[in-house]
Protein 1
Amino acid sequence: MTIIENALSNPVFALIGDTADQLGLRAYVIGGYVRDCFLGRPNKDIDVVVEGSGIALAEAIAAKTGAKVSVYSNFGTAMLHHKGIELEFVGARKESYHRESRKPIVEDGTLEEDQLRRDFTINAMAFSLNKADFGALVDPFGGVRDLADGVIRTPLEPQQTYSDDPLRMLRAIRFCVQLSTPEHPFHIVQESLQAMYEMRERLKILSSERIVEEVNKMLLTDKPSVAFRLMDETGLLEQFLPELTNLKGVETVDGKGHKDNFSHSLQVLDNVAMADFSTTLEMTNVWLRWAALLHDIGKAPTKRFIPGQGWTFHGHEVVGARMVPRIFQRLHMPLNEKMKYVQKLVSLHLRPIALVDDEVTDSAVRRLLFDAGDDIDDLMILSNADITSKNPAKVARLRRNFELVKEKMAEVEEKDAIRNFKNPITGDMVMEIYGIGPCNLIGEIKEYVKEAILDGVIPNTQEAAERLMREKAAQLGLKEK
C-alpha cells in the first residue's frame, strides 16, 4: 500500500468524495494531515477544502453519518466529529490584507488560490477526494521535496506571507522544532529568517493570546531551546519577552566573569523537558517548563559586581517571583493557580540546591516541604535541572548530593507528614478554649506552634501541639474559661 493509499484508507474520505460528487463540488483534504502522512506522524485533525460551500458539504456528511455539525457562518467553516477524528470543512478562498490590520478581505476562490494563501509549502499539499481522481496529490510548491529535505519555506515571498499574518513567523519556528527528529532535522530557509528579522516589529499587531499559544507549543517540544534561540536570532523574542533576552551576554571585570544566563536558562529548560517522561501533550506540564524558562529572570535587575568578590545576583529568586505576575498579565496568560505555581517555583528554585551545599537538617527539609507543598516533586525536577556546569566532576558531585537530599526528604516526609501540613491549632479552637474573640494573640499562638513543629521542637501531633498552645497562651496571660 502506498503512502497516499494508506492515508486515504479510512472510509470517511470516500464518503466525503461521493457526497461532494453528488453536490457537484470539488473536495480535497489539505494541510497538516497530508504533511503528517508523508512524515509518518499520527494526525486525527483533518481539514477539507471545498471549491464551493464547505458548510453545505459538512451538513450533507452529517446527515449521512448522524454526526452533529457545528457551523461557523462568519468564517465559512463547519466542523464535525466522526469515529474519533475531527473534520473541518471550509470553502476554498483567497485573502488579501491591509498592512495595518490582521482582518483579511476574504473571497471565494479556487484550490490553487487557497494553496497560495497557506503558510508553508509543506502545509499546502492536498489529496483529491472526488471519485474521478481520488488520491491525486496536488503539490504546486514542492512540499513533498521540502519534507524530504527538511525545509521550512513559504509558497510566496516570505515578506508577503509574514506580512499577511505575522504569526506565521512564530509558526515557522514552531514547525521547524516540532517536526525535527535526530534522524531528520528541519531548518528554515535563510530568506525566511532574514524576512523575520526585518519584520520582527510587526509581531506587535498580534494578540498576546495567539503568541502564547504558539510559544506553549514550542515549550512542549523535546528540545524547546532551539525554538527560543531561533526567536532570539530573528529578533522576535525581544518583541514579547524582553525580560528573557535581557539575560544575554557575559561581562568581565577585573578578570572575573559570569555565565551567560540566557544560555543557562535555555539549558535548564531542555533539562526539564528531558526529565518530563509524559507521553502525551495533555499530560506534559507546560507550566513547569515556563518556570524553567523564567527561573533566573530576576538576574538581570539584580546583577552587581563587588570588588574582591565578583558578580552577585543576590535575591534574584525573590525579584524573579515578583516579575512573574507582570509577565503573565502582559501576555494575557492565566493569573490563577497556574501563575501562582510558576511564581512559587521561581521563588523556591534555589532552596534544594542550598540544601545540597549545606548540611541537610530535618528542620530545613521540613520547611522546604512545607513551603513547596504538593509542588515539591516539580520543584525538585526544576532544581535538579538547574545543576549545570562545564565541569563534569562538579555536576556529578552535586547530583550525588542532590540524591541524598531526596532521600532525606523521603525520610522526613514519612515521619512528619509535612508536605500537606495543616496546623493542629485553629483559630476557632483558641477562641473556644479561652473565650476570646478574633485578635492578634490567636495568630501569634498559631505561628508559635507551627514554627515549633517545623523546627522539630515538638512532633507533628495534636497532643503535642495543644500542650505547647497552652504554654504559650499562659505566657500571653490567657486563661482557660
Note: Residues 246 and 362 are 38 Å apart (CA to CA).
Protein 2
Amino acid sequence: MLTKEDEKFLELYSDSIYEKPSVTVDAVIFRLFDKPQENYRKLPEKKLQVYLTKRQFLPYKDKYSIVGTFIDLNFELNQSMQYCVSQKVNLKNNYYYEQLFTFGNKDRDPRSRVISISYMLLTNQSTQVEGGEWFDVDLVDVSTNKKQIKGGYVLEKKYELNLTSETTTLKNQIFIKITKNGIEEQKNIELLASDLAFDHARIIFYALERLKNKLEYTDIIFNLLPEKFTLTELKNSYEVILREKLLDANFRRKTAKLVMPTSDYETGKGHRTSQLFEHNNLWNLDID
C-alpha cells in the first residue's frame, strides 16, 4: 500500500527527464514433427522445428522472423505475448511457455533502441497455427577452441544454424565465447551472419540452449509430445534435441519416473507393436 507521503510524491513526479526505449515481446515457437521415411518399414524421422513468419513491413521487409510485437502498456508481459501469438499466428492454447531472456543490445534494431523480452513456447504436432511456416532446425558445431588462462579458461565455439522449410533455407552463423575465471563466468553470443530479421537467429539459438539444458532436470519434453507415445518415440525426441545418441540403459534409467505404461498399443509403424506410455505428472513427488 502506498503511504500518503508516497501519493504526494507521485503527484509531483515526472519521468520526462529519462530516455525511454521501445519494448517488444518475441516468441520462439518449437515443435517436434514426424517426417515419414521413404521406406515404410522405418519409423518416421523426428525433427525439431521452429515457426517463422515473413515480415510485411520495413525494416527487413520479406525477411523471416520469430513472432513478436511491441508491448501494450495495459497488459502484463505474459499477456502481451499471449495476445501476440493468438492474433498473429492463431496460437491460442495447447502450448507451454516460459520467459527466455532479455535482449537489449543497442544496435539490435535499426529503428531505435528496442528491448526484446523473449519467450520460448512449446507445442506438439497436432496444434494448428497459420500465417507462417515451420522450419527444420539444424544446429551444427563448426569449430571449438579452448585455451587455459590464469585461474580458468577461454572457450570459443562457432555454430551454423540452418533453418529449412519445404521451399527455403535460412543460414546463420553464431560465435560463442565463454570466459571462466575462478567462480566467475562470462558468456557472449555474437551473430556473425544471418538470413533472419534483426537478431532473431541469436534468440533462437538461446532458446535451443535453454531447451537442451532443461531436458537434464525437468519434464519439459512432454510439452512437445502427444498425450500417448512409445518409449522409442520419447528416446528419439531426446536425441533430436540433445543432438546425440543415448544408450538404452541410460535412457531407461533417466526416464523411469517420468512415464507410466498404458493399456494401449501402437500398431502399423514399421510392422511393430509397441506399448504406449504417458507422462507421469507426479514424477518428482516422493510418494510411497
Note: The chain has two domains: 22-214, 227-279.
Protein 3
Amino acid sequence: MSNLDLFSGHADLYAQFRIDYPPELYDFIYSFVKEYHRAWDCATGNGQVAGVLAERFETVDGTDISAQQLEKAVRKPNIIYLPCPAEQTPFPDRQFDLITVAQALHWFDVDAFHQEVRRVARPGAVIAEWGYGHNRVSETVDPVVMDFYLNTIGPYWDGQRTHVEDHYARLPFPFADAQRAEFSVRRSWTADRFLNYLRTWSSVQKYIRQHQSDPVLLIADRLTALWGPEERDVSFPVFLRIGSVR
C-alpha cells in the first residue's frame, strides 16, 4: 500500500522532529551482516537511517514515494536517493547485503514488498524491519497524550496503525533465522519540542487537512503546564524483527 503518501505535506516537520534510533539497534543488525557493499533503506523519509548506514556501507540506496521527503534527506556522497514504491523498484536482481525499513512497513503491501526483497537481495542478505510504539514521559503527562491519541485524533488514524501497536505480529515475515529484539530510544525534550513531534503524526496531519486547524493546540497549554519549563526524558520502545534472505 505504498501509494499511500501521508508525509509529503509536512516533510519539514518530519525532518526536524522525528526520533532517531539508538546505536545498539544498528550494532545488533550489523552483527548479522556479512558484507558491506550495498544497502537499501526502504521508505527512507528524511534519510535518517540511510545516513547511519552510509558510515558502514560502500553505497546506500534510499527510496521513498515522497519526493518532498527526499528533498530534505541527509546528503552523503555514497547515498543515492530514488523516488519509487517499496513493492516495485528499478534495482537489478541480487544487489543488496542489507535491506532496512523503519516505522513504515505497515503502509506497504507487505507480501509484494517481501517478494521484491527476495528479488533484489543477495543470497544471505539481511532484512531488518522495525518501528516504535507509544512514548512515555511521566505519570501526569502520559494520560494527556494517550487521551489525545485515542480520542481527539483516534478517528484520523489509518487502519494500518494497529500493526504498530501489536509490533507487526500479524504481518508476515517469511525469512530464515527470524529473530525479534527490543530497544529503547531516550531523548531529553522541552514541551515545545514534544508538541512539534506530535505534529509529525499522520493522524494529526489528516485532522489538519480536514478541519484547517491544529489539534495539538487543544492540549498544548495543559501539557506545557504539566511539563514545566525544563527538559524531560521521553522514552520510546523500539521493536525489531530481523532475518536472512535465502
Note: The beta strands are 38-42, 59-64, 79-83, 96-102, 121-132, 176-189, 232-244.
Protein 4
Amino acid sequence: MHPIAIDFGGFAIRWYGVMAALGFVCATGLVHLNRKYGKVNSDQATSLMLLALFGGIIGARIFYVIQFSHQFRGNLLGIFRVDQGGLVFYGGFFLAMAAIIIYCKVQKLQLIPVLDMATPSVAIGHAIGRIGCFLNGCCYGKPTEFFTGMAYPADSVPAVRYGVVPLHPVQLYEAGINILIGILMMVLIRKCKPGMAASAYLAIYGIVRFADEFFRGDHRQFWNGLTPAQTIGLVMIPAGIALMIYFFRKPVADDAA
C-alpha cells in the first residue's frame, strides 16, 4: 500500500488517480485498435470512450455513496473526492453501458459490435484500476494464512478493521484475472460471431466477481448472506449464458442490431 505518488508540499497526487487515468488511456488505445470490429471511425471511438468515462465515474461513485453512505455523514464534500478512492465497478459499468447505448442510437451505430469492441478495454482498464485499489488500500480482502497474504500499515483502514495481519490481496487477484479476460476478449471479437464477446464477458466476469467476493473484507452482506456484487452476479451470469446461446445460434447474416 502506497497511496501517494507525488507530494508537492501538501498537494498530493494519489496512485489511485494515476492508475485510473492510465487505465483509461490503455482502454482508449484498445478501442482504437479494435474499432474496425465495432464498425466505428476514430472520432466515434473517442466519443464513445469519453462518454463511457464520465458515465462510468458518475455511476461508480453513486453506487459507492449509496453502499457506504455512513462514511459521508457530516462530510458531504467527501462525496466528490473520487481521487481518494471509492468507486463501485458495477455502478460505473451499468451507467457507462447506458451512455454507450444512447450514443449508438443517436449515431445510428450497430450496438452489438460496439459492445463487443469495448470488452477488452473494459477488462484491461479495470485490471489497471484494481492495481490502483491495492496501492490505495481500498477494496481489501479478509485475513488469510495463505502465502499471498499481505499486511497493511497500522494506520490504514484494513488494519484498523482487522489489525496488522495478512489479508488476501483481492485487488491483485482480480487485476490478474481481468488481464486474462481482456486477452480472451481480443480473441473472441476476432474469431466469434457478433455478440459472443459481450455475452461471454457478462458471464465470465459475473462468475469471477461472485467468487472474488468471498475473499473481500470490506463489504457488508446485502441479501441472503450475499454481497451487493454477488447479488448482481446472480443476474449477470445466467443473462450472459443465455445471450451467448442466442448469438451463437443467430445467423450471421441477421446481425445488424
Note: The chain has nine helices and two strands.
